[in-house]
Amino acid sequence: xxxxxxxxxxxxxxxxxxxxxxxxxxxxxxxxxxxxxxxxxxxxxxxxxxxxxxxxxxxxxxxxxxxxxxxxxxxxxxxxxxxxxxxxxxxxxxxxxxxxxxxxxxxxxxxxxxxxxxxxxxxxxxxxxxxxxxxxxxxxxxxxxxxxxxxxxxxxxxxxxxxxxxxxxxxxxxxxxxxxxxxxxxxxxxxxxxxxxxxxxxxxxxxxxxxxxxxxxxxxxxxxxxxxxxxxxxxxxxxxxxxxxxxxxxxxxxxxxxxxxxxxxxxxxxxxxxxxxxxxxxxxx
Length: 285
Description:
Elements: H1 2-13, H2 26-36, H3 48-66, H4 68-169, H5 172-198, E1 219-220, E2 226-227, H6 236-260, H7 267-281
Antiparallel strand pairs: 1-2
């Protein structure tokens, strides 16, 4: 009884149990399994579930075949998109390298221009320095030349004044004029003192002998050396005689005073000449 039940179960489970299973060719069977995932050696042992699994695969295969055109289109889109993406990456990198090359060239151009500018500035600064040194040297030489020229001219005039003073010392007329000039000078200083102390009223002080003559006018050069002008209180004869005695001296004084005010560095020569003249006019020679 149990044997009959087992046979019935086999019939229900293995639908092709009537067939003799096994592989027709071992290598061929292995090829079907490797390439198509199909086996024939056990078909006689397939259960309904096994045949259902084969049916599922067949349904999937039919669906694939029915939709193969659309599937191809979709995969072609995926492939084209991937190709386009890689091409885009290539284009972008190529453009980037070209741009970087141009930028690097621009940087190099700027560096070269900066180097040229620096070299030019350095050269021009050096030239300017040398030109300034040259100009300064020439200016100092010109100053020295003109200083020496003026000193020589002043020395010549001072010598002429000294000679004229010495020549006039032996002249009686000049001695008389000198004495009168000293008296007039003393009176002028008295007028100035009383005028300073008492104002205009002081000019009529009895110590001045009632003189109301205006004081001697004095002009100054750049070195405060006096240029003498005859007092209005002198007589015509006195003014004429005194003027003759002082004409040659005043010319030298005026000329040397004007020149001294325009030239730096020659004050000592001028002052020595005027010192000798002043001593002579005060009778200290």
